Structure to design on (227 residues):
C-alpha cells in the first residue's frame, strides 16, 4: 500500500463530535448507530496532509451503504527500515480516521473508536519493541463471527516489507473452503445496515470483504450475511 500523506489547513478548527444519544451507553448495536451518525456529519476542510496522524500506511478502507461518500481509513505506521511502530504499551499502531466526502479529515469519536477496537482486536503478543518479528502483527475480525461464513480463522495478518527504496504494508486473510481457501489481500470492508423501528434504529445485515487474490492477482469480493 502507498504511504498516505494529507494536510489539514490551519483554518481547520474541527467540529464537536459529541452526541446526546451517547448517554445510552456503549454496545455493539449503538456502535453501528454512532458510526452511521458520525459519518453523516459535516467534516473538516479539504485536506492534503494530517499533522495529527503524520506519515502512515493505509491498510484498508471501511465503507457503508448510508452516506457512502464518507469513509473510514484504517492505518498503521512503520519506521524507516519498515518495522511496525509500537506505542507506549508495546502494541502495534493500528488506528482510524474519517475522510468525509473522501477528502476531509475528521477524527473518530472515542466511543466509536472503542467499539471498533472491540471488533478489530489486535492479538496478544503481536509485537513488542526489539522483537525480531516486528514487521508483522495480527488482528481478529470479530464481525466474521456474527455472519454466516466458512472462514475458519477470522485473522487479518498485517505485514510490512521493503520494496525498492520504500516500505509496502498490507493485511491479508485466508478465506474458507467455498473460496478455495484463497489468501485475500484486504483493501476494503463494506458494511450494509438497515433501518429498524427501535433504537438504535440500525442493524448490520452483511459485510463484504474486497481485495486481491494474492496468488492470481485477480479482484475478489465476498459477501457474508447475518443469519
Amino acid at each position: 500500500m502507498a504511504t498516505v500523506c494529507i494536510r489539514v489547513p490551519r483554518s481547520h478548527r474541527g467540529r464537536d463530535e459529541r452526541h446526546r444519544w451517547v448517554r445510552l451507553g456503549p454496545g455493539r448495536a449503538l456502535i453501528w448507530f454512532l458510526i452511521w451518525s458520525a459519518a453523516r456529519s459535516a467534516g473538516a476542510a479539504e485536506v492534503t496532509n494530517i499533522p495529527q496522524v503524520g506519515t502512515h500506511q493505509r491498510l484498508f478502507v471501511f465503507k457503508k451503504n448510508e452516506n457512502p461518500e464518507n469513509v473510514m481509513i484504517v492505518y498503521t505506521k512503520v519506521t524507516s527500515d519498515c518495522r511496525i511502530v509500537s506505542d507506549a504499551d508495546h502494541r502495534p499502531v493500528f488506528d482510524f480516521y474519517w475522510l468525509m466526502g473522501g477528502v476531509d479529515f475528521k477524527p473518530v469519536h472515542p466511543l466509536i473508536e472503542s467499539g471498533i477496537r472491540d471488533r478489530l482486536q489486535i492479538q496478544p503478543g503481536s509485537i513488542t519493541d526489539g522483537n525480531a518479528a516486528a514487521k508483522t502483527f495480527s488482528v481478529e475480525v470479530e464481525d466474521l463471527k456474527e455472519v454466516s461464513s466458512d472462514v475458519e480463522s477470522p485473522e487479518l495478518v498485517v505485514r510490512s516489507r521493503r520494496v525498492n527504496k520504500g516500505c509496502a504494508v498490507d493485511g491479508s486473510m485466508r478465506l474458507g473452503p467455498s473460496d478455495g481457501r484463497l489468501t485475500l489481500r484486504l483493501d476494503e470492508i463494506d458494511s450494509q445496515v438497515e433501518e429498524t423501528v427501535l433504537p438504535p434504529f440500525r442493524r448490520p445485515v452483511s459485510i463484504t470483504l474486497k481485495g486481491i487474490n494474492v496468488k492470481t492477482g485477480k479482484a475478489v469480493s465476498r459477501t457474508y450475511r447475518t443469519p
Q: What stands out?
A: The two ends are 34 Å apart (CA to CA). The chain has one domain: 23-47+56-225.
